Amino acid sequence: IVGGEFTEVENQPWFAAIYQKNKGGSPPSFKCGGSLISPCWVASAAHCFIQLPKKENYVVYLGQSKESSYNPGEMKFEVEQLILHEYYREDSLAYHNDIALLKIRTSTGQCAQPSRSIQTICLPPRFTDAPFGSDCEITGFGKESESDYLYPKNLKMSVVKLVSHEQCMQPHYYGSEINYKMLCAADPEWKTDSCKGDSGGPLICNIEGRPTLSGIVSWGRGCAEKNKPGVYTRVSHFLDWIQSHIGEEKGLAF
Amino acid sequence: KPSSSVDQQGFQCGQKALRPRF
Lengths: 254, 22
Hints:
The structure holds 2 protein chains of 2 kinds.
Chain A: E1 5-6, E2 15-20, E3 29-38, E4 41-44, E5 58-62, E6 75-84, E7 89-90, E8 95-96, E9 100-105, E10 135-140, E11 156-163, H1 165-168, E12 182-186, E13 202-207, E14 210-219, E15 230-234, H2 239-246
Antiparallel strand pairs in A: 1-11, 2-3, 2-5, 3-4, 4-9, 5-6, 6-9, 7-8, 10-11, 10-13, 11-12, 12-15, 13-14, 14-15
Chain B: no helix or strand
């Protein structure tokens, strides 16, 4: 996250930290963010996993404010299922249908348990988003500047505003790279944004009075660059896909 | 404003233990 502030996971208790396992016993490497949408399911971005789409290669933590270190109250999960969108594809700049689902379970077969640092996030009503111009929260362990070599160890969050499709499709923004299954969000002064390493993490907007997973960090040109908003998978347009894979509607936080 | 109800596992979507920023 460029700009914004450091935070505790209690302020974003649906945030999931997804790590890729390493060979030879070295500790896993942070890969991407995600969001807990039901006790057994985390939503993230397909582009995080497309090069290594094997569930055995990943481990998921909930309740982490600090990356790669022990956090009191954290829970660790293996990935029981890894589902990437079947129509995921990459353009020169854009990712399309950039959504993935991870079914999680502990080594003893449990799903997530609620606590001060672990909570589900609501899903939006079908085809419903917050109005353009609304403030939404982004969260992640991603870079604080695109040119940084190191990633921050502590969780960060910030606030960006939803940008209309009309605006985001302007030639000096992203032109035809944008479609209606994506959401653009940016800071009017271009001082804060999601960045490399924040992929898969949540864009949380208030819809009908509830914090709601409106977007999933997907792509963008640079970070906090003028006229180049962050682009997010538009969750409200993937509810049928989510439901078809998770199955039971009652387990979902609509 | 509507609020989510507590599910069978004790989750209440979108509810923070800390005060929301909205």
